[in-house]
Amino acid sequence: MPRTIETVPIRPDVLKWARETVGLSVTDAAQALKVSPEVILSWETTGVGVGITQLRKIASVYKRPVLALLQTEAPPLPQLPRDFRTLQSSQPNFSPETMVAIRDAQRIQTIATELLEEDPTLYPPAFLPHAELGRDSAVEFGVLERSHFDVPVSEQLKWPSVDFAFGFWRTKLQRLGILTLVKAMPREDCRGFSLSGSSATPVIVVNGNEAPHAKIFTLFHEYSHLALGENGVCLESAQLRIERWCNDASSSFLMPPDDVRLAINGDPVVSPALVQQLSRQFKVSRHVVAIRLVELHLASQDLYERILEQDRQTQDWEKTTRDRNPNKEFGGIPQEVTRLSEVGSGFASLILNAMEKDLISPVDAADHLDLRPGKFTSLSQRIESSLKRYR
Amino acid sequence: MAAGVVRYVIDTCAIGDLEGISASTALPVSEIERERIWRGLERLISEGRLVTVYAARAEIQRRCPSAFLRLKEHGTTFFVPDTAQLLIQVQSVLATWPEMAKRLQRAKANRDPADPYIIAMAHSQELTVVTRELHRRDRSKNNRSGDHIPDTCEKLNPSVRWRYLEDFINEEGL
Fold first, then answer.
1. Distance, CA of A54 to CA of A79 (rounded, Å)
2. Before A120, cis peptide (omega within 30)?
3. Which of A164, A183, A181 is nearest to A173 (CA)?
4. Which is nearest to A186 in space by CA: A92, A98, A62, A102?
5. Is the pLDDT of residue A276 over 70?
């Protein structure tokens, strides 16, 4: 009677690659897989024969399909965006959720770039501005870009809501050939990141766990990174010079100095209520308004500190509420709506266009969009309606 | 199973096209013909002559839920569970399919493409793959890069037999 094979040999280098590319330490991986760190190290030194159940468990912890662990050689480690979150950023240490978001954004960027090489008419060509740290003023860059976007502040002040503002700015960036994605990541880990490359389609990713006004700010913070040609993962803290530059550029873009002065008749702002009012008008956070006012010498540092403290308390309350109801907001939303919100009308229309032109099959399109082919008509209608809304 | 009887392993896109999930690639048949073909498939399944791999279960459920409702009634007679032997064979298939290996580097968790499993099962059990993926020679000029299921079947040694869905239907008189 032939011997039944019960284990599958997994190569040590593949196991190490899978663990490292999800950002887990040996200790974290051991804890998640309920084995000792020595076992993980032994797997990664000599390989391992595992049963199917254990193989699925490893794939699940390492956030990979089982097939990825069956490869006969480890793929090269992916190039990660630079870490702009702290001063000590030599060795990026992203959370598994952020690593998976980076991987997915890179997947989308590769698909888009390859399709555009085959047919450049599928999506608008990206023309990114160019700026240099140390040479260009962030504030002037923001104001200049704002004029290129041709969206008067008077129009911005009339928008009905901050959600509308996010949709509008996002669509505008997509029309400029920049893919914009929304990915859920831990808020304390990352606000957003950008991906570029000499011939690659530029991508901006904003954290889906952030409030809409924070997402808007991140869109233009990352746009500024793309202009500098220095893309990376950001928390938008002011520790690094490049982060300060991108913050200033984004603030200046969203709240051009002359328009801010006009909005308050040039009078100094002393009350948090007025900061709140400006936040509603410009569709940016109170925090951004307060910083902007201080920079323009229109408010005191003390007012900024008060706003910061109030926002911190609100964020703590929101976090507690969110932790109690982690997935409540997603119930009952159609699949194509969730996907469109994540990949944006830019990538979705690029894929549908490629399918129309027979560059990819409906099955490939379904895989790229992670959506059933039966939902394509509805997706297409929603894209059209979104483009009309944010004309 | 009598010697000489052909056994098949079917891929997800063949099921999707038979079900008419996407108008542009649906098998051009009437509703009556479609139902007749489905009954023929179900007969082959019950005779143990038509199977698919377990990884196709999630794909079919995701891409063609109506077909899934019908096929899940056949349980593991149709969706054959993975074995260690099959997974070892999958490793050999991946080694000959660089595009798939590249795709896997950025594939989502819990999204195992079924194609390598299908070819591996056909290779190890001498089954014939039924697919609607096009061989390079049958694709439009725009779409000839990369290996699809038929190309990979032919690259293996010994090569794996494969049939387009339409030919399989004709040959089996479905």
1. 29
2. no
3. A181
4. A98
5. yes
d(CA A209, CA A83): 19
Report yes or no: B152 and B15 within 8 Å, Cβ to Cβ.
no
Q: Model-level pTM greater than 0.90? A: no
Which of B12, B17, B22 would you mutate first to test chain A, the one with the most A CBs within 10 A? B22
Cβ–Cβ contact B84 with A under 8 A: yes
**Confidence band (pLDDT; 50, 70, 90) for B2?**
low
Closest partner residue to A75 (CB to CB) among B22, B105, B142 is B105
Q: How far is CA A177 from CA A350, A351, A360, B65, in A?
A: 11, 14, 20, 35
Q: What is the largest CA-CA distance in chain B?
A: 44
SS3 A217: helix
- Chain B residue with CA closest to A73: the answer is B95
Confidence of residue A317 (pLDDT cuts 50, 70, 90): low
What are A227-260's pLDDT values in tens digits? 998 887 877 666 788 888 999 999 999 999 999 9
Phi and psi of A69, rounded to 5°?
-85, -10
Kindly report the length of chain A: 391
